[in-house]
Design goal:
6 helices; 177 residues
Amino acid sequence: MQTKVRNQISKGVVAVAGVCLMTIAGASAAPQGKASKHDQHFLVEAIQGDLSEVKVGQLAQQKAQSDQVKQFGKMLEQDHSDNLKQAQQLADAQGVEAPSEPSNKQKAIYDKLNGLSGAQFDAAFARSMVKDHEEDVRKFQREAKSQSPVADFAKQTIPVLQKHLETAKSLQKSASR
């Protein structure tokens, strides 16, 4: 009788262990979390912003008259490429489908800048980057205060965005002289 009970208990333990292993395996294959609508929106906008800044940075390196603007374009391309990778990894971990191109508004800004050259490009580029980075700093600061899984990413990104904003303001002052 005791042997029969032990066998049944052993079978039960094996069955429970099997269910636990299947649950763990299933959980590791699934995304780590399901982002809230707010976080999904934030991540999509952040990725689109990075995609846009990389392209605009490349454009500045080609079209700018000033070496300072060209250097800023290079900084934008490098920093936003790095940030893009992090944002895409976070989106993947949160189960968010990452966009593959900038928003229509960002494409229109790119097209407008692409139609300019020399000093006109430099001035319009600086104005655009000040406006864009002011908005980005506000959005990222707001997100950093949240209790979401995306808050740490936002906190880490703010210093880079602030550096870009200060550089863009400096370029804007130079262009208006």
